């Protein structure tokens, strides 16, 4: 039975729920918090990388997540110039200030792991290469997500 009556939305909803479930499993949070974590981290990354790279990443996101990713985007602005993990983590804290506390490094790791798991590996490498070295250090290896059984 279709949830929305349109296959494209049903498929995007299913994929979005898979991404959120993975984040929930890694952070031990609920779906609401996982949604905010996903959107916050993706938008911070989007605003840091060059325009073309941001657009290429957006094209690989499920339709529903893509909407959150592009929310309030101003592509005419230069990419943000933060350079340290501390600056990155402060932005995550600010973006999540209205929900239950989530350690910002864990939030970033959870989203990075989802990207590792679901986005083209070449695209992930391009995004990582555009990040400052301290932020790259927060990015987990591309293996299966923590707590997930790869054989399941």
Explain the layout of strands and helices.
Elements: H1 7-27, H2 31-48, H3 51-59, H4 63-70, H5 85-95, H6 104-118, H7 121-130, H8 133-136
Can you walk through the features of this model?
By secondary structure, the chain is mainly α. It contains eight helices and no strands. It has helices spanning 7-27, 31-48, 51-59, 63-70, 85-95, 104-118, 121-130, 133-136. The model is unreliable at 146-152 (pLDDT under 50).
In CATH, the topology is named Globin-like
- Average pLDDT metric: 90
| Number of DSSP E strands | 0
Helix fraction? 55-70%
Q: Can you name the CATH architecture?
A: Orthogonal Bundle
Q: Which radius of gyration do the C-alpha atoms yield? A: 15 Å
Helical/strand content category: mainly alpha
CATH H level, superfamily name = Uncharacterized conserved protein DUF2267
Distance between the termini: 25 Å
Query: What is the N-to-C succession of helices and strands?
Result: HHHHHHHH
Keywords:
single chain; 152 residues; mainly alpha; Globin-like; 8 helices; 0% strand; globular; disordered C terminus
